[in-house]
């Protein structure tokens, strides 16, 4: 999959994209949790790709279907989840990411913050981010190990259940998880090709410890915690 950007000249009216930090990777790796922890710890603005992709971008998704001469209705759930192989599902997901990334960039361009914006989500692909970020150090890719993915599926209600009404929910869930694995594997290959750090989450560290690991990677771009503590006490940092 190629980047939607051919060069680094990306419209960035407020300088938000050039200063952003990025967490990409696979589903069920704890990206959203780590982003929330770091946002609270460092006073960052967190952007959750999945939330916007599912909700705020739906009108744009419908408009794009109409522009392409397609039905504005969502695809049939049986075709999407039951009658399609995981490899086909992964290919369709990857093919849709470039347009969806452009929509995410529109959201991010509208944000102005005195500190970096931290954007996280599986659609924030290394090959898309690299032309914008300027340095691979501004991104990490988080992916779950097979064992940790299985544990997440057993433990998280949103991972363990398939909430669409289809004829074969067991097969649909199996297809979804295998699709997620294939998409995560593709992100890892892209990250390693571009020199972006990959963090495999295996459950041996709790969420705070994983956040520490990501914070250490982003250290050159994060405000010092001592200065933040002084701000919160209402006095200028020393």
% residues in beta strands: 5-15%
CATH architectural grouping: 3-Layer(aba) Sandwich
The CATH class, by name, is Alpha Beta
Distance between the termini: 48 Å
Biggest sheet statistics: 5 strands, parallel
Uncertain regions: pLDDT < 50 for 5+ in a row?
none
General form:
globular
Describe this structure in words.
This protein is 55% helix and 10% strand. The chain is of the alpha/beta class. The protein has one domain: P-loop containing nucleotide triphosphate hydrolases (Rossmann fold), CATH 3.40.50.300. The chain has a five-stranded parallel β-sheet with strand order 2-3-1-4-5, sandwiched between helices. The mean pLDDT is 90.
Secondary structure topology:
Layout: H1 16-19, E1 21-25, H2 31-42, E2 45-48, H3 49-56, H4 58-67, H5 77-82, H6 86-109, E3 117-120, H7 126-133, E4 139-144, H8 146-155, H9 157-160, H10 169-194, E5 197-201, H11 207-217, H12 225-232
Parallel strand pairs: 1-3, 1-4, 2-3, 4-5
Helix pairs in contact: 2-11, 6-10
């Amino acid at each position: 999959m190629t980047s939607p950007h051919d060069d680094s000249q990306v419209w960035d009216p407020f300088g938000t994209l050039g200063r952003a930090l990025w967490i990409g990777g696979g589903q069920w790796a704890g990206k959203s949790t780590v982003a929330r922890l770091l946002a609270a710890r460092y006073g960052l603005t967190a952007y959750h790709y999945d939330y916007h992709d599912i909700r705020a971008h739906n009108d744009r998704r419908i408009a794009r279907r109409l522009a392409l001469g397609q039905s504005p209705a969502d695809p049939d759930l049986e075709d999407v989840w039951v009658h399609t192989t995981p490899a086909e599902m992964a290919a369709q997901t990857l093919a849709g990411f470039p347009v969806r990334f452009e929509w995410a960039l529109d959201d991010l361009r509208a944000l102005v913050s005195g500190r970096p914006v931290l954007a996280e989500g599986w659609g924030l692909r290394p090959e898309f981010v690299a032309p914008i970020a300027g340095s691979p150090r501004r991104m990490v890719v988080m992916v779950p190990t097979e064992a940790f993915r299985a544990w997440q599926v057993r433990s998280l209600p949103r991972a363990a259940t398939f909430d669409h009404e289809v004829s074969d929910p067991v097969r649909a869930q199996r297809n979804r998880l295998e699709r997620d694995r294939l998409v995560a594997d593709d992100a890892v290959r892209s990250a390693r090709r571009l020199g972006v750090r990959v963090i495999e989450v295996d459950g041996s560290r709790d969420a705070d410890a994983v956040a520490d690991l990501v914070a250490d990677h982003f250290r050159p771009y994060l405000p010092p915690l001592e200065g933040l503590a002084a701000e919160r006490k209402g006095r200028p940092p020393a």
